[in-house]
Amino acid sequence: MLFAATMTANAADYTGSLFKTVGNTTTETKDVKVSMESGRFIINLPGEEAISFDISSSNTKTVGNVTFYTAYNNYGFFKGELRNDEKNAASPLSATFSQFAEGGKMTIYRFGNERYTFGQLLGSNFEKFHTAKNGNYTSDEPDGWHSFMSSVTGPLTGSVKNKVFTSIWDDVRPGSKGTSSVKLVSHAILGIPANGTLTTGRLQAKSANKNDASKNNSTSDPSATEVDAAGDPFYAPLAASPDSIAVWVKFKQGKISEENKEHKYATLNAVFTDGTKYQDPEDQTYSNVYGKATCNTIESKGFEWQRISVPFNYSAKANYTGAMLVTLSTNAKAGVGSTDDADPDVLIIDDLELIYDTHLASATFDGTSIPGFSPEKTEYELKYTGEISDKRFKFTPRGHTIGWSTDLVEKNGENYLIVTVVGVDLLTTTTYSFHMVKDEPKTEYNGNLAITINGEEQNPQSTTIITTKHDDGTYDLMLKQFTFGGEDGFLIGDVTAKNIKAQEVNGYVVYTADQDAAITNGGAIAEVLGGKVHIKLNAQSKGDKLYAEISLPVAIDEEVFDVFAVFGEKFETGINSIKTDNSTIRIYNANGMQMQQMQRGLNIVKGSNGKTVKVLKK
């Protein structure tokens, strides 16, 4: 059971490499000093301000030779492993510290011994091996893993330690960044099949009776002090609750008796306990088990690589600390494998990984499920009224997580709530983005738009103007898909003037503006204009009718065209017109013929000052 503990006031200093990860970029700083003192974890970076994290109320638990620390606050999470053994005397501390920054981004600091990765089992990438010995017999066993060469045997079973069950193999799974895997084979001992077995615990092979679980098993006992040839214990401490376990394997069954042909599967069994003694297979009912993940139907599939993934079944959903006993075997049933050492059962194993699910199972806003929500979908658009607050959201994680951060950020004038879900390993994250769109009253007006360019009338075009009223009484006015030079002319785009001051007079809303307007969803000319254009606006609306006079200069190269647009029919109350230059422009095609408006292809536009501009209309 986890219990609260306060760090002592005495400083404990450690020196090692610090790995800093931001996004997909990781940097290493060597010889960094960290301190655990007065309830704080302090990283002292050369030439920089020290990074400090409050761990005064951290949860602690000791499993075997490892003491785990877990702490969190509004700024991030901390996990530490302090190892009290001779092998790690030079670098006993490993720590991971996750810190949240603006925008929901997370910086991960990892300090200490690179052999240990939080939330993973030692040696589970099968890249580092040690030599296990039994007298003159040796075999290569992966660091953190054990087979029969390092097993405990009885007087009738000692010969099992004379056989090589494990070896380094150079065949790696698809996409692997490593160079080795582990090859596991079966043997026949005194005519009895002995399954190739690999475990994070210690194998007990004390009985010639293959079904005697009390004497033939894999045992995890963190109270034991024995260590393997690499100096590691015969148990695997773990301070995180994985949601599943995955491993890559290649399996081939060798020569098997006719009566045992139905037993054609290899097996994987993982058991997460509270850190007290446990054995697999069980010889009694154990009450110290948090969860199990079992696959006893691993098929050969042509001796090709396959990824096996198995979910954990927990007695209750919680973030546990304890020990993980994982056992892989060339057969799911004891003593029924190959009887021929020349044609043994073979199981090649690579990259075993504990998986932490950081997806959300559900998300609600104001008590209602977010439309279209799916755990794998990470981007949403939500309409809202009132004020934005993360308190209006409720999230339910799908797997075991340590929590999540929320941050309200602004991007290009738009509001986003960024939610970062963090796994209990502190390394796995999933980020969700909720684009918050103010649900404000909008009115859509449809009508004709009459346009003059430098005083010359163009053919009118049908268009739409949308007004949006804000809480402060100002309006946004959008002229949809405004086209320069007629309905089939040159597209400018959606022209939006924001936060226009307006007055209500005798039932009319009167709008006036002299400002830059943004251009969105536009064509090439929008890029030429830099995504904006200056407008002067006089408009009135009442009911479902809007009348607007809009003046906007359009600059192409060095030529500026004065565009004057009138939308709708003028109310009897009237609006003061916008004065414009009465100068004219002329539009010609490539053959020099004057046109009433721009056509497809090359258009030559001649201004009143004699300058011409070539415009290509697609």
Alpha carbon gap, first and last residue = 72 Å
Shape: elongated
* Secondary-structure class: mainly beta
**What about the largest sheet?**
10 strands, antiparallel
Number of helices: 1
In spatial order, strands of the major sheet run 1-6-7-8-9-10-2-3-4-5
Question: Helicity, in percent?
Answer: under 10%
How much is the average pLDDT? 87
- Assembly category: single chain
Radius of gyration: 36 Å
Strand content: over 45%
Number of strands: 49
Low-confidence stretches: 1-10, 574-584
Describe this structure in words.
With 618 residues, the chain is mainly β. The protein contains 1 helix and 49 strands. It has a 10-stranded antiparallel β-sheet with strand order 1-6-7-8-9-10-2-3-4-5, with no helix packed on it. It has an 8-stranded antiparallel barrel with strand order 37-39-40-41-42-43-44-45. Strands 18, 21, 23, 25, 27 and 28 form a 6-stranded antiparallel β-sheet that branches. Strand 43 and strand 44 (545-556) form a beta hairpin. The protein starts with a strand and ends with a strand. Residues 1-10 and 574-584 have low confidence and may be disordered.
Features:
single chain; 618 residues; mainly beta; ten-stranded antiparallel sheet; eight-stranded antiparallel β-barrel; 1 helix; 49 strands; 1% helix; elongated; disordered N terminus
How does the SSE layout of this entry go?
Layout: E1 3-4, E2 12-22, E3 25-37, E4 40-44, E5 51-54, E6 59-63, E7 66-73, E8 76-83, E9 93-100, E10 106-112, E11 129-134, E12 137-142, E13 152-153, E14 166-169, E15 181-185, E16 187-189, E17 192-194, E18 197-199, E19 202-205, E20 216-220, E21 237-238, E22 244-252, E23 266-273, E24 278-280, E25 289-298, E26 306-311, E27 313-314, E28 322-329, E29 346-355, E30 360-365, E31 368-369, E32 379-384, E33 393-397, E34 401-411, E35 414-423, E36 429-438, E37 442-453, E38 456-457, E39 461-469, E40 475-484, E41 490-505, E42 508-520, H1 524-528, E43 532-542, E44 545-556, E45 559-567, E46 586-588, E47 594-595, E48 601-606, E49 612-617
Parallel strand pairs: 13-19, 32-36
Antiparallel strand pairs: 1-6, 2-3, 2-10, 3-4, 4-5, 6-7, 7-8, 8-9, 9-10, 11-12, 14-15, 15-29, 16-17, 18-28, 19-20, 20-24, 21-28, 22-26, 22-29, 23-25, 23-28, 25-27, 30-31, 30-33, 34-35, 35-36, 37-38, 37-39, 37-45, 39-40, 40-41, 41-42, 42-43, 43-44, 44-45, 46-47, 46-48, 48-49
